[in-house]
Hints:
Oligomer: homodimer
Strand content of chain A: 15-25%
Strand order of the largest sheet of chain A: 8-5-4-9-10-11
Helix content of chain A: 40-55%
Number of helices of chain A: 8
Low-confidence stretches of chain A: none
Structural class of chain A: alpha/beta
Largest interface: A-B, 56 and 55 residues
Distance between the termini of chain A: 50 Å
Shape of chain A: elongated
Largest sheet of chain A: 6 strands, parallel
Order of helices and strands of chain A: HEHHEEHEHEEEEHEHEEH
Radius of gyration of chain A: 19 Å
Amino acid sequence: MPKQIPDIVIGRLPIYLRALLQMSLEGRQVTSSQELGERLGISAAQIRKDLSQFGEFGKQGTGYNIEFLANQVREILKVNRVWDVAIVGAGDIGRALAGYNGFSQRGFRISMIFDAKPELIGGQAGEFTIKDSRTMKEEIAAAGIQMAMIAVPATQAQAVADQLVEAGVRAILSYAPVNLNVPAGVRVQNIDPSIHLQRMTYYLE
Amino acid sequence: MPKQIPDIVIGRLPIYLRALLQMSLEGRQVTSSQELGERLGISAAQIRKDLSQFGEFGKQGTGYNIEFLANQVREILKVNRVWDVAIVGAGDIGRALAGYNGFSQRGFRISMIFDAKPELIGGQAGEFTIKDSRTMKEEIAAAGIQMAMIAVPATQAQAVADQLVEAGVRAILSYAPVNLNVPAGVRVQNIDPSIHLQRMTYYLE
DNA sequence: TAGATTGTTAATCGATTAACAATC
DNA sequence: TAGATTGTTAATCGATTAACAATC
């Protein structure tokens, strides 16, 4: 059995990766846990500890080669490959996601978009033709797609999630402002701007 | 000095509130820490512990009155009032946010939207006229706005954040895929779909 | 009353930090 | 070599859970 890595550590790796990519864009070759920590507001010790769960990626005295470390983190996170992602819902958010070109550099490729509204089906969203969500389950299953983003109204989200799970999806990023219940083995991440705003008002006057 | 509440507790309160609102919509009057916990995948003990940081909101033997508890949580989070929020960036995401009607029930009101592109300035985004971002700092300061959402390209985000801080904004929800550095006392939340997706691929095969 | 559920304490569990030998 | 920084251990800190008296 492989060593059990805390989920909170997994959650920080994408942040590290994003910072490494930015440093790389700035033309930097090498960094240190201290520098990375200062940029991210995370302690240097924590960064070293997190990375040490997976191997030894640095050199004493000099730090980490940025390109090398980025590749290692990509490998750990399994984003050194391309994941097909389905979008469900072709409203404002679904279309914004379909047109977003930031996914490809990060390991993802939008592969289908679905909606239930007859007036949207057959229309365009980014470079995709919007498909009928009645065919969703079989198309996703046939394509072997494991990841999906939900951008449908709150009232529809649970039903969509259920169908996605039946189709074999095991990772869901939901923009619907409701809690989704899924079986063990299926991961869910939520994006709800109101929730994020409400996390901050407590500290305001 | 008021008791110091862990940020992780504050982070769960909006989740509780959202679940309470949903129960309320379902016509329910009363719930228990156990029921709430089952819906959210959180232990009942944790919910009781979290709430007990702020007061005694339940009744032994019966549980919590949903409407009452929701109001208490709103008060704790300070979303029993309306917060004006500025949007910076009128691309796909900014316009989706400007047109989103879910904010008003959750304590927020979009009040302005800005962009730097001449061809967008003066145009419409939802019910708003897009303003010139050169006037952003003074308009936000004049209106006393404390919250903003950033929906500009990654390359612009830090400069925008700096201006927002200068204008008096103290809570920023950023959709730009970069880490923002802000002074102490300013809170930042990030929404980056790639980061959320990358948090899940580790668990896939 | 009997049953249910809270609020809270103490115990457990897990995450973060400090410190430093190893070494580039 | 001297200085810097890693990887790792042990100590600290903080969060979660279990358990139960209080009480509705």
